[in-house]
Design brief:
This protein has 140 residues and is an all-alpha fold. Helix content is 83%, strand content 0%. Helix 1 packs antiparallel against helix 2, helix 2 packs parallel to helix 5 and helix 3 runs antiparallel to helix 5.
Length: 140
């Protein structure tokens, strides 16, 4: 192997570590999303509206953290923000669709903490790969 070339194992290791950092930074935004959702849905808003507000707040937190701590920015900040925002709006649509669909079942309608947790878990991988592409222009 020549200098500067990464082995497959090194690439996989680096990708794994990047996902760990992504998950760690995302834990803060996800925590805000989760807590804000539960407060809003239990006190003020119906589930779909609460999800839009909480998810939107998490999107802003995530963008700042991804830009500063996770990905190596390749391009103008405004262009990256627009692309990240677009990917996040697709994520919001997926998340809201999941929240809506799950709330049609009485069990999930009565256990919002599980509804939001399931939706968040499903979207983790979508969010990682789309944000990596937006910031670094690559998936792997």
């Amino acid at each position: 192997m020549q200098r500067g070339e990464e082995s497959l194992w090194q690439k996989l290791r680096n990708l794994f570590l990047l996902k760990v950092k992504f998950a760690g930074a995302g834990a803060l935004a996800t925590g805000v999303d989760y807590v804000l959702y539960l407060v809003l849905v239990n006190r003020f808003l119906p589930p779909v509206t609460a999800n839009i507000v909480s998810y939107g707040t998490a999107v802003l937190i995530n963008f700042g953290m991804h830009r500063r701590f996770i990905f190596q920015q390749k391009g103008a900040t405004w262009a990256i923000f627009l692309a990240s925002f677009s990917a996040s709006m697709i994520g919001l649509s997926l998340s809201t669709g999941l929240i809506y669909g799950l709330n049609r079942w009485p069990f999930f309608a009565q256990h919002q903490y599980l509804t939001k947790l399931l939706s968040t878990g499903i979207l983790f991988f979508y969010n990682f790969y789309t944000k990596r592409f937006v910031f670094e222009r690559r998936f792997f």
